[in-house]
Design brief:
The chain has about 200 residues and is mainly alpha-helical. Helices cover about 65% and strands about 0% of the residues. The protein has 10 helices and no strands. The chain has helices at about 5-20, 25-35, 35-45, 45-70, 75-95, 95-100, 125-130, 135-150, 160-180, 185-195. It is elongated.
Length: about 200
Amino acid sequence: MPAARESLLDAAYTALARRPWSAVRMVDVAAAAGVSRQTLYNEFGSKEGLARALVRREADGYLAGVERALAAHTDPRDRLTATAEWTASAARDNALVRAMLTGCWSERLPAPTLSAVPSASAVPAQRRADGPLPTPGDFVRLVRDRAVSVLGGAGAGHADGSELTRSCELVVRLALSCVAAPPGEGGMAALVRGALPGQPVSHT
């Protein structure tokens, strides 16, 4: 992503942390990023385009964190626990991630339509942002399927692959429930280990 675009998204994110999206002005975002307002419009097209790009970036950042969590351990349950913990912490620390995962958009946040919008942008990253944005159900499937791929490897296609898929989806949905109601004593690890079947999670 070009430096100017990233700087503008950083400026928009910072502005959103300080005031409602309705009060965020394009001219102020451009000034904070050190570029002209015309550059901002050239990159995003409109305030709605900026909102879509910001939501897309935060979604991509969350999913990149899922990849890191799954790669950080070798034990399957530790991998799923790390993924669940990342989901809960990302939602706690980032209002946009929380809204995307739960579908609950407060009045302070931008609320771009999740369906694709017509795009004539010359900027490839903006054309992607103008495409469909992920719904809560999309995130469940994306994280579940990535976990199945990492944990199952070549064994994911075996007859018992459905059990792995169910286990991974259960952990994702458990993590989402903890966004609204944080876990108590024992934390996420105890919840994940208590929810999974007794047999090994991995098919490798």
